[in-house]
Design brief:
The protein folds into two domains: 95 residues, Ribosomal protein L30/L7 (Ribosomal Protein L30, Chain: A), CATH 3.30.1390; 46 residues, no CATH class. Helix content is 34%, strand content 16%. The chain is built from six helices and seven strands, in the order βαβαβαββααββα. The strands form two sheets. The protein has a five-stranded mixed beta sheet. The protein has a two-stranded antiparallel ribbon with strand order 4-5.
Amino acid sequence: MVFAVVRVRGIVNVKPDIKRTLELLRLTKVNHCVLLEENKVFKGMLQIVKDYTTWGEINKEILSNLINSRGMLVGDKSITEEYVKSATSFDGMEKLSQAIIDDKFRYKEIPEIKPLFRLSPPKNGYEGVKRSFTNGGALGYRGKEINKLIERML
């Protein structure tokens, strides 16, 4: 299972340990998104930054759209189907997305890839950047609802 993590809040008055954890996750700016596999280390890091990020399980269709529209190579070049076929052992974006979802391949293992996605702010805005998702806000774990948020941000 793969988590999509989106940074929601900015950097003002962030405690040093939270700031360092955000840097380790490569979430240096608002609306940046990274893909993380599910393990104890990343779950602990997500608990540390839960007041600045939101995350959940991404599905194959949204992941494929995310890679197509926002995936970048070094030099700010877009990822194409031809590049995926030549640089990896996969036939296209759909099979690559399915392999990433099934933890058979990591997104950051694609040669010359930038390991994060720069997203636009969501249409109609965030629900609220000071409350958790369970309390009607935008922060913390949101499960499958992350797909709706990412779709609004593409």
